[in-house]
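Exercise: predict the structure of this protein bound to magnesium ion.
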Amino acid sequence: MPIAQAAAPVVLDAVELRILHLPLVSPFTTSFGTETVREVIVVRARAAGGDGWGEIVTQQAPLYSSEYTHGAWDVAQRFLVPALLDAASSATGGLAPETVADVLEPFVGHRMVKAGLELAVLDAALRAEGRPLGEYLGAVVDRVPSGVSVGIQRDPAALVDTVAGYLDQGYVRIKIKIKPGRDVADTAAVRDAFGAIPLQVDANSAYTLADAETLAELDRFDLLLIEQPLQEDDIVDHATLAARLRTPICLDESIVSAKAAADALALRAASVINIKAGRVGGYLEAVRVHDVCRAAGIPVWCGGMLETGIGRAANAALAALPGFTLPGDVSASDRFYARDIVREPIVLDDGHVRVPTAPGIGVEIDPVALEDATVARVELRR
Ligand code: OSB
Ligand code: MG
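Solution:
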């Protein structure tokens, strides 16, 4: 469903951007690399009615997508924030959160930056109105099942140990990262060790159609899905692969908008879709992706980008929409961070995460934790 009730316009006095460095509790390895410190940008929209917070989920290097933190830092200051400040001045009567995407639309790409800016404006608007983000987006449940994304480990035995720890904590679905040479044996080890748990794999674009035979070997593990086996642009190849596999194909990197989702479904390139607000340019576009999939009877789930408590709280709200019928990568703060930057870290309760009910994103920033993690700060004014 589209947003039922629009939010009131926001007058912006300034936008503060910070680059944070947050140490991860353990290294996170995917087919594209290993991260030990999360480098991320936090946005504070300084509005007449109070501050709003957003998160730009770029990573340090352009390995998952073409976006990366210092590119985001540049484009935000040079183009996107000035355009936003112009459109949201008292002279214009302010800017409604639903029109942020229109204001930023002339600038091609940079969706993660647009998403972080839109979230900050949305949070400011909703806090001023006393409305929780979940209610605004159309949440239908008050808690969401929590899955965990497990990085590639030293060997399959180490992977089994790591997965055992997450199952003990109560996570209801396991996703393991795979890459060529670390696929069939790793998946077999987890299946053998834990039986019929809800299990899926994520290749982060590491294969080509020439690997179809290897990928077909995964069919015997009854996986929920295989996520993004081929490259971002390989929509037709994904359709070809889908016809050869029994395991459902889920797209992540390829789905950059509601239009991209509709096209991928029309081509039968995927039968499940991972929705990340950053990747599609914002939480409002994420709702539109959800709506396209729901109308087509395609299940969706909420992906993650190692968010801080800001994006993690917003993801919990998004994942509460009715089309999110599979557990998301909406894990507890302590899955990645010893110390989150919000006062109410996201916690696991019986394998679920609560949808915040306080106004806006529903969490308060811990100013000391924020300051301690900040490595760069800038404030832009009109
Ligand atoms: O492909 O889903 C992905 C993290 C960074 C970049 C891409 C991905 C991921 C994850 C982690 O899998 C998801 C999470 O935040 O829990
Ligand atoms: Mg993925």
